[in-house]
Amino acid sequence: MTAPLLSVRGVDAFYGNIQALRSVNMDVAPGEIVTLIGANGAGKTTLMMTVCGKPQARHGQIVFDGTDITKLPTHEIARMSIAHAPEGRRIFPRMTVMENLQMGALLAPEAKFAEAQEMVFSLFPVLAKRRNQRGGTLSGGEQQMLAISRALMSWPRLLLLDEPSLGLAPLIVQQIFQVIRELNAKQGLTVFLVEQNAYHALKLAHRGYVMVNGKITLSGTGRELLARDEVKAAYLEGGR
Amino acid sequence: MEYFLQQLINGITLGSIYGLIAIGYTMVYGIIGMINFAHGDIFMIGAFMALISFLLVVSLGVTSVPLALMLVLFFSMLLTAAWGWTLERVAYRPLRASFRLAPLITAIGMSIVLQNFVQLTQDARVKPLPPVITGGHILTDTGTFSVSLSNIQIVIILTTTLLMAAFSFIIAKTSLGRQQRACEQDSTMAALLGVNVDRVISLTFVMGASLAAVAGLMYLLYYGVIDFFIGFVAGIKAFTAAVLGGIGSLPGAMLGGLIIGLIEVFWAGYFSTEYKDVAAFSILAIVLIFFPSGLLGKPEIEKV
Predict the structure, then answer these.
(1) CA distance readout (Å), A45 to A153, A163, A223, B178, B223
(2) Per-residue model confidence as pLDDT tens digits over B49-93
């Protein structure tokens, strides 16, 4: 494997006194789609937020492209070209679709705004129709598309995607996963994907990790993990 | 009718000043969910900065009134903004992570600190400023009663309208305004997109304080006297205006300021001067019974 783009080493994180991550190690190499699966409350979202410095890791190290970002404030981590489409989408509800995209493009050169806008509108044409509508009035699927688009507006080197399938109709989930596959294949975008929908995620990803109670318990290629009995039993049983 | 018109003019003038102060309350509330009770005193500081700037400008030998006013406006906004920035940096930012009441209590404390500081350094007597903008226009004259619009009233209303328009433009159309609204709606998400939330909060205090400085200058020009205590009542009125209009809403703060100014002046003009404040606050109470989130407030309260 080439030198990882994102490397998490021995990371512990806490919410107050509750330990949410226990000595987590994981890597994402450039050009990879890596997924993290696990049950509700396992700590998947916490790991993703810890990469972004909210909360900061109490022990361990997070390195992005050779730079230690463990103690950087969140907005400077964003400046490293890490974009985050977080859990719950977190669209700005009283801003229009365009304004949400402009917020996403905050760190990108202004000259590249039109190009980025064209890209996301061609990925999700429905957003072009909704461009002057307030974020809060979009459907769940449209909000998820907007969350991903907003993240893409900054031309990130690493895209963090947290549960993009949550609460969406299967058809929309397929559309979104197809877009992720395309972005990775055509633009070489590196993606770190957190999912509860383990079957889809493991089929999409090059590699995956399984998290239980804040610890990484298994790792391997997507295909390997799909074949593991414990993965099947815990995450895939009837659940595809 | 003439009497009504005169009171209307006076009410709009007073309401403009309240509106300028109210914006500072509403913006800070919007972005960090805190009532900055020291904001009234920032307005008072603004009036003193304006007075000091006047002395400075005059001692520099500026004799042209419009030029002097522009310079005073600039210096008092700059200096008061520095006060607002410092206030946030010293008193509120260290408490950002603590429980909700801590910054509120600190704000009340800072209000007292600022009052006493000015009382000690400028002493407690009222400070006069000779009329700078004089003259006016008689709009109608019935022989028994004449309606006049003074030049100072024109200056106040025009300046306020202009500033509010500029300010609404900044919030609605510029990148800074978008960042402010983003922090207001979801500050964690804003940070994830690269917004330096602390910086945006600082700038919000700076903007609120510079508008309060304009209000202070207008107050100084209009009434001609200031003292260390003017921030208290004006601050409470402006806070009332912000709540009346819907706290967190910019047009609400402007509208609320205007309404409070009008109520106060009309009550004083038609009923009694003594009860004008009672009238203003009673109407606030009545409005809030029917519109709990204020006239232009958002129906859902997200930040409590």
Answers:
(1) 22, 9, 23, 27, 58
(2) 999 999 999 999 888 889 999 999 999 999 999 999 999 999 999
Query: Residues A114-161: pLDDT tens digits?
Result: 999 999 999 999 999 999 999 999 999 999 999 999 999 999 999 999
B107 CA to centre of own chain: 16
Number of C-beta neighbours around residue A151 at 10 A: 21
B251 cis-preceded (ω within 30 degrees of 0)? no
Judge whether A154 is closer than 8 Å to chain B, CB to CB: yes
Structure tokens at B285: 């109470």
Give dist(CA B300, CA B21) in Å, integer. 25
Rounded Cα distance between B70 and B48, Å, is: 16
Nearest by Cα to B15 from B219, B193, B210: B219
Q: List pLDDT tens digits, range A170-227.
A: 899 999 999 999 999 999 999 999 998 888 899 999 999 999 999 999 999 999 999 8
**What is d(CA B24, CA A148) in angstroms, rounded to the nearest whole number?**
35
pLDDT at B157 over 50: yes
Rg (CA), chain A: 17
pLDDT of residue A237: 62
Chain B residues in contact with A136 (beta carbon < 8 A): none
At B151, list the tokens. Answer: 């030049």
CA-to-CA distance for B22 and B253, rounded, in angstroms? 5
Identity of residue A189:
L
Considering only CB atoms, A54 lies closest to which of B181, B185, B188, namely: B188
The two three-digit tokens of residue A209, written as one number? 């990790």
Of B258, B228, B250, B264, nearest in space to B297 by CA: B250
The alpha carbon of residue B297 is apart from the nearest alpha carbon of chain A, in Å, by 13
Which residue is associated with the tokens 């609120």?
A: B208
- Is B182 in contact with A95 (Cβ distance < 8 A)? yes
CA-based end-to-end distance of chain B? 45
Is residue B63 within 8 angstroms of chain A, CB to CB?
Answer: no
- Terminal-residue alpha carbon distance, chain A: 30
Q: Is B302 on the interface with A (CB under 8 A)?
A: no
DSSP characters for B28-76?
HHHHHS---TTHHHHHHHHHHHHHHHHHHHHHTT---HHHHHHHHHHHH
- Please give the Cα distance from B190 to B201 (Å, whole number): 12
Q: Do A75 and B197 touch (CB under 8 A)?
A: yes
Domains of chain B, each with CATH number or no CATH: 2-290 (1.10.3470)
Q: How far apart are CA A49 and CA B122, in angstroms?
A: 51
Confidence at residue B302, expressed as pLDDT on a 0 to 100 scale: 41
Nearest-CA distance A35 → chain B (Å): 20
**Contact yes or no for A95 and B185 at CB 8 A:** yes
d(CA A193, CA A47): 11
Q: How far is CA B297 from the centre of its chain?
A: 18
**A108 φ/ψ angles, rounded to the nearest 5 degrees:** -90, 155
